[in-house]
Each structure stands twice: as C-alpha cells, then as structure tokens.
Write a structure and sequence with these properties.
Length: 441
C-alpha cells in the first residue's frame, strides 16, 4: 500500500524542513512530557524514550498553520478555501481489506501499555487527547470527532461527550451500548476533518477524503470503518455506566467542570508494528488551532450568504474559539452589522467578533486594532447581545448542569463608514527608498 498520507509522511516532511524537535533523553508521561510540550508549544516534537513504555510520543504537529499547509500541500492563506471545498466533497473514501493499523492485534488489551499523559497536577487522571473517535449511528451513518478520554482502569475510560452532537445522537439512537473506535496517530487531514462540525449525518470521512486520500478499514470487533493509516486503534463500547469525568484543564487553560459521563469498555487494541503515540496538550497552540480553524469556513459561508466575505480568522488570543475577525468587501452601510449577525450564526460559541475591510491584514492583531482605533465608534458600530446560547468553555458565562451555557456577545464593526471620503481612512504609504544607500558600509 502506498504510504501516503500518514502521520509518518508528515513527520518526514517536517524533519526535512528542520521543523521537528527530537528529545532523546527519557521523559515521564506523568506531568513531565506535558511540561516539555508546553515549553516547546508551537513546535512539532518527538519524545523518543518514554519512561515505562516502548513507544515514542509525538505532539505539536497541528500547532501552526504552516504545518497544515505543508501537510495539505497548499499555502497558508489558501487553507480556508481548501477546507471549504472539502466540506462540499461527496466522494466516499475507498475501503481496503488490509491496513498498517492492524499489524499487531491485542484481543486482551491493556491501556497501561499506552503512554497516556497526565497533563496538569490537578487533573482527574491520564487523558487521551488526540484520539479521533469514530461511531456508527444506525440512522445517520458514521461520525468522526474528538473525545477526550480519561483512563480509569486497564480496560476502562470515561469519555467527555458533548450533548446533541454526533456521538451523543448516535448513542441515543442506539438505545444502549454503542461501539466506538478511537484512532490515535491518524493522518493530519483526518484530524482536521474530525475537528469539523458539519450538520448531523454528514460523515467527516468525506471531508477527510476531500482533503486527501483516506483509505478506510473495518474494525476487528465492530463494523466501524477507520482510517487505515493510523498508529493505534482502541476498539470498545460506550456503555450506560456513568462516572465522574475530570477535573480537566480545557482549551481556555482553566479547569472544566467535573461531570457524570459515559464509561467506555475496551475490547481490543490494534497498532502498527512499531506504533507512535500522539498526544495533544490541552490549551496549547495545537489544541487551539484544531478547535478554531474548522470554524472559519462555517463563518465564511454564513457571512458570504449575506454580504461579500473575503476572509475569516479565529484568533489564538481568543482561545481559538471565542473571538473571530471577519474581513468583508463593504458595499452597503449596514454590511458590517449584517456580517456580525451572520458570523455568530456560523459559529455559535463565538463571543466577540470584529469586522474589518479588505485592506486590513486579519492575521496581524496590530492592524486589526488599528482598524478599531481609526474606524470604530462605539455608539453606532457596537452590537451587544445579552444572554445568548454560547460556549461551555468560558468561565465567565452562565453554566447550569444539563442546560446550554449562556453568554453576552459583542460585535464590533470596524469597517470604514459608508458615504465618507475613504482616503481619510486609509494608511498613507511612505515613498520608497533604497535604505542600503543610507546605512554605513
Ligand atoms: C482537540 C479537540 C478536542 C475535543 N474534545 C472534545 C470532547 O472531549 N468531547 C466532545 O464532545 N467534543 C470535543 N471536541 C469537539 C468535537 O470534536 C467537535 O465539536 C466535533 O466536530 C463535533 O462533531 P459532530 O457534531 O460531528 O460530532 C474536541 C475538538 C477538538 C479539536
């Protein structure tokens, strides 16, 4: 089978570009590896010797848009369009009979064999954080997404399953136990697809196939189809047993609530012959980008349905979840305010949104603030929405067990007002000079 694309092909590309940091000294999966990841946040890292384990740990491969561009063979500024295109893809991935993720099959599995990391001192236990979870809904078909999983025994984990999304819906439709496969060390484009939230019934494997080749293979203990190029697959069942999940430090680097969540029983583990374990540090650049980037096409599409959108970025300063910048080509007075409304529709968890014109570099926070400083007047350009459904991740929101979190939202229209002399609002360029003529020898 053609070894492409996989976690390994990406690691090779990163190494060829001097972007992979290798740690040769032994490191402990209990707190130490997480601290190394925090120190090297934003860089792909391979920890070669893991205390008590035979397999290496890799992290940080999703921690910069440049790595996505490299892995997806595109330019950073074209990622949004590439992902938007993949959302439209209807091509089903091919199904193969044999796969590298089954080079070793353990029918009496033991989670202790995996270097599952404990990230923060107060965490409830070791957590799998980079596992792509695949389930099959009896009505809606397969669903692929992320679920953090806390290890609570040799064959037991507890999964954080957000209500009314793919896995929760499949679980309700099953009316009892639901088979699940957790894929650790899946190809980069599969991670990105799994982080997307298309409407229920839209299989993220189609998005993955729209991004790059995604051969699938059937699980050993269920009929779930999983990405063939995966390092480690945990097969099991989501049961109706409930237990405490957490504490867990989440995206905002603040502790999430402890909740009663479903226990997952492990039935088998399959791996490559020499597997690499993938970890993701909660609240790191990698966590943020994976959460936020897939929301950019959703916002873009919504805004574009009403006004001319040209770009969207979910900012890392806003935890890559709560803040977004929308760039539009303004044609009417109220285009900025319409864009704000549509942007909130495109990403229900977004709390604050800034709309700018096409001359503003939305990847440059100074330029965005310059637009606010020179184009925005709060009495007419500010939109405030109180007590809206919002993110469970923002500690300043209103959170009640079993109810959707509530938050206030703010939209700032920092576009040039309509009907004014536009030149008065544009940066005047300096005339150019050949500086080498004026610097010393
Ligand atoms: C790194 C990462 C971790 C996530 N962890 C969880 C989680 O623990 N539980 C959960 O329900 N969703 C989690 N999510 C969000 C889901 O993966 C995301 O909302 C998913 O796209 C929902 O898709 P679905 O509606 O098709 O199920 C996480 C996302 C990312 C990128």
């Amino acid at each position: 089978m053609d070894e492409k694309p996989s976690l390994r092909t990406l690691l090779t590309m990163l190494e060829q570009n001097n972007l992979l940091t290798r740690i040769e000294k032994e490191a402990d999966p209990n707190l130490v590896i997480a601290s190394i990841m925090a120190e090297l946040d934003g860089r792909p890292v391979m920890i070669e010797k893991v205390k008590g384990h035979s397999m290496p740990v890799v992290a940080g491969i999703c921690s910069d848009r440049d790595y996505f561009a490299l892995g997806l063979n595109t330019k950073k500024q074209d990622l949004l369009q590439k992902l938007s295109g993949a959302f439209q893809s209807t091509k089903r991935p091919p199904i193969v009979d044999d796969a590298v993720c089954k080079e070793k099959i353990y029918s009496n599995p033991n989670l202790d064999d995996l270097p599952i990391l404990t990230h923060f001192t107060g965490d409830g236990g070791p957590y799998i954080t980079a596992g792509v979870a695949v389930v099959k809904d009896q009505d809606l078909g397969q669903n692929m997404c992320f679920h953090r999983l806390m290890k609570i025994g040799r064959k037991k984990m507890v999964a954080r399953i957000v209500k009314n999304r793919g896995t929760d819906t499949a679980l309700k439709n099953a009316g009892g136990e639901l088979p699940i496969a957790i894929c650790i060390g899946a190809p980069l484009h599969v991670l990105l697809a799994a982080a997307c939230s298309p409407p229920l019934g839209h299989d993220e494997a189609l998005i993955a196939q729209g991004l790059d080749k995604t051969p699938l293979v059937r699980c050993e203990t269920s009929d779930i189809l999983i990405p063939a190029y995966t390092e480690i697959v945990i097969e099991g069942r989501i049961t109706d047993e409930m237990t405490n999940e957490g504490p867990f430090v989440d995206l905002t680097q603040t502790p999430d609530l402890i909740r009663q969540q479903q226990v997952v029983e492990v039935d088998a583990i399959t791996t490559r012959s020499d597997p690499i374990y993938q970890a993701l540090l909660p609240s790191s650049q990698e966590h943020k980008l994976l959460m936020g980037m897939p929301k950019e096409p959703s916002i873009y599409t919504k805004v574009n349905s009403a006004v001319k959108a040209t770009n969207v970025v979910i900012t890392t300063g806003g935890c890559s979840w709560l803040h977004g910048i929308v760039q539009i080509e303004k044609h009417k007075e109220d285009d900025g305010k319409i864009a704000i409304e549509k942007a909130f529709e495109g990403h229900g968890s977004m709390k604050n949104c800034i709309v700018v014109d096409t001359d503003i570099d939305i990847y440059d926070e100074k330029d965005v603030e310059w637009a606010l400083a020179t184009r925005f007047q709060a009495s007419k350009d500010l939109v405030i929405k109180t007590a809206q459904p919002g993110s469970s991740l923002d500690p300043s929101g209103i959170h009640e067990e079993g109810k959707k979190s509530l938050t206030d939202k703010m939209g700032l229209d920092a576009t040039i007002p309509f009907g004014v002399k536009k030149e008065m609002f544009k940066k005047v360029e300096f005339s150019r000079v050949d500086i080498s003529k004026y610097l010393g020898d």
